[in-house]
Structures are given as structure tokens and as C-alpha cells.
Write a structure and sequence with these properties.
Largest sheet: 5 strands, antiparallel
Strand content: 25-35%
Radius of gyration: 22 Å
Order of helices and strands: EEHEEEEEEEHHHEEEEEEEEEEHEEEEH
Oligomer: single chain
Number of helices: 6
Number of strands: 23
Shape: globular
Distance between the termini: 35 Å
Length: 313
């Protein structure tokens, strides 16, 4: 198992060794970074360094006999067998696990991330690292110059009023992937000087005669996209693309009322496609669209507008 911090520089790795059979691993507690002793005086694992250039085949945790991995937010994830899990961090500052089928250091780059049940990579973001108690991990990142004291202080300032920080709803870039269920999109947009909570219930709901319902059940990985429609030239219009359906190839109906299905104006979300709706008074489906400038003072518009501007740079 390897812990990777990826910023704008070369990837760096934490390295661990020898997790005992069926031992529950809490990879980012302070205890998990310090060497510990098993019976007989042997260390159960050991941090080496953060440099992937120094890796050798013994720099891993072999948990191929484990059936689950317990992580700090109490999500249990089944692991393939054999497995050598590794950990990576996004450019926004999130620590992830990666699952390698070989102990060779060369296998790390192509290894998939450990996924949560919502289809997103399990991770600890930089705001979580700086606003919770991970002193040993932060000390190591500082020692390797992967983060700076100024970054830690700025992150703590931005999130000073947040009681809970959830990794999967933090969004830093317009095209960043994020998990959605087919009811509402709730995100925290992280800006340079502020954070903005935004909620989008309308992409997935349908209504008739004042009654609203959500016709589709399921979840997906999605992202926002700028509109390329010629009719939207010069306007800040955003679409939603469904990248992957979680847990299967198709979604299911959330209601049994056949009449509601017939009047459904939200087409079934499909992997790889823009989310489509049939506007009222129209006969053909069109991509769901959000006009940032229609109500520019709303929190949704402020948050998406900030992502739009950042995307231009």
C-alpha cells in the first residue's frame, strides 16, 4: 500500500509494510503513520519516504487475504484479491488509496483508485487534512515541501466555520468529476478567498399540476461542461454530463405511477451523455442547461461563475 501526494510537481509516496492478516487498517490516523510492533518485536508497517523514485518491491502492504478495508469515515469497501493497495492525492490536495495487482513500483501509475460506494475515489482532501488532527502526515508533507505552512493556514481559514467537511462534494474546477444521486446536486465550491455551498435540485425533478417528483433512482459520476451550442455564444451556459452510472449500466424508475412516467420530462440518464430534459411546450429533448447570468447574485450562480472564470485560466 502506497500513499501518494500529487500536486503540480512529481508524485510522492508514503510507503508501508506488512499489515497482519485480517487486521483493520485506519490509514490516516496518527497511529497509522507511526511504526508499530507486533508480537516478536517486528514492526507491523513502516513509513519510508514520499519519493516514488526510491520504491522497491518490498515497499507495499500486502492485504490480498483481506475481505474489507475499514477507513475513518466507516465506509467498508471490498478489495479484489490479490491486492496491494496504494494511496494517491489529487492536485487539489486529497489523499487516496490505489489498488495494485503487483508489488512492482512500476504498477502504481496504472493502478485504479479505491472507490467508495458512490463511485468516487475514497480520499482525504487537503481541507480535511489541515482542519482535522493529522499532524504526523502534515509534518511529512511539509518536510517534503509538498505543501507549505501558508497553504495550511489558508485552508484552515477558508474552512474555519465548517463543522463537517465531506471530500466528495468539494469542487475546485468546472470539469472536476463528482458523485450525484438522481435527486439533487449538493456541492461546496472552493474559491481563492471563500467557499460557496450550492444546491441544484432541478436537473432531475419532473412536475405536473404542481406536483414534483424524481423519476429516476440511482447515482452516477458526473461533471459540468460549458455549452458549445451556437445559440449560447457569448453566454455562460453550463450543462451536466453523466460520465458513469454507479452499480450497473442502467438506472431504475423511482416511481410506479405509469402516468407520471408518461409525463416525465427528464430522460433516463445515460453514461457518457449530457443530461437531457424536454422543456415545457417542446417536443424534443434538449441538454439540461444552467444560465449563470440569469440570476448572477444567487449562490449557485456565484459558485458556478467562479468555476467558469477559473476554467478560463
Amino acid at each position: 500500500m502506497l500513499l501518494l501526494y500529487t500536486a503540480t510537481r512529481s508524485p510522492r509516496l508514503f510507503v508501508f509494510n506488512n499489515i497482519p492478516h485480517r487486521t483493520l487498517l485506519h490509514p490516516f490516523s496518527t497511529e497509522s503513520i507511526q511504526p508499530s510492533k507486533r508480537r516478536g518485536g517486528r514492526p507491523s508497517f513502516l513509513v519510508s519516504n514520499l519519493n516514488p523514485a526510491s520504491l522497491v518491491e518490498t515497499d507495499k502492504i500486502d492485504i490480498s487475504l483481506k475481505t474489507q478495508l475499514t477507513i475513518p469515515d466507516d465506509i467498508n469497501n471490498p478489495l479484489p484479491s490479490p491486492t496491494n493497495p496504494m494511496v494517491s492525492v489529487t492536485v487539489e490536495g486529497g489523499v487516496r488509496f490505489r489498488l495494485a495487482q503487483s508489488p512492482s513500483p512500476s504498477s502504481f501509475a496504472a493502478a485504479p483508485d479505491l472507490l467508495c460506494t458512490n463511485g468516487a475515489p475514497w480520499q482525504l482532501t487537503l481541507p480535511q487534512l489541515t482542519c482535522r488532527k493529522y499532524p504526523t502526515l502534515l509534518d511529512q508533507l511539509l518536510h517534503e515541501s509538498l505543501i507549505s505552512p501558508a497553504q495550511i493556514a489558508h485552508s484552515q481559514h477558508l474552512f474555519r466555520d465548517e463543522r463537517q467537511i465531506y471530500c466528495h462534494n468539494l469542487i475546485f474546477r468546472l470539469t472536476q468529476e463528482f458523485p450525484v444521486n438522481f435527486r439533487q446536486i449538493s456541492l461546496v465550491v472552493v474559491g481563492e478567498d471563500a467557499i460557496h455551498h450550492i444546491g441544484l435540485p432541478h436537473p432531475f425533478h419532473a412536475s405536473k399540476r404542481g406536483v414534483r417528483w424524481y423519476p429516476w433512482a440511482g447515482s452516477a459520476i458526473a461533471r459540468f461542461e460549458r455549452s458549445t451550442d451556437a445559440h449560447h455564444a457569448g453566454r455562460r451556459i453550463i450543462h451536466l454530463r453523466i460520465l458513469r452510472i454507479v452499480g450497473g449500466e442502467r438506472v431504475s424508475h423511482a416511481c410506479d405511477d405509469e402516468a407520471r412516467r408518461r409525463h416525465n420530462r427528464v430522460l433516463e440518464p445515460e453514461a457518457g451523455q449530457l443530461l437531457l430534459r424536454v422543456p415545457y411546450g417542446a417536443k424534443e429533448a434538449r441538454p439540461w442547461a444552467y444560465d449563470i447570468d440569469e440570476d448572477p447574485r444567487s449562490m449557485v450562480a456565484v459558485g458556478l461563475g467562479m468555476l467558469w472564470e477559473r476554467d478560463e485560466f
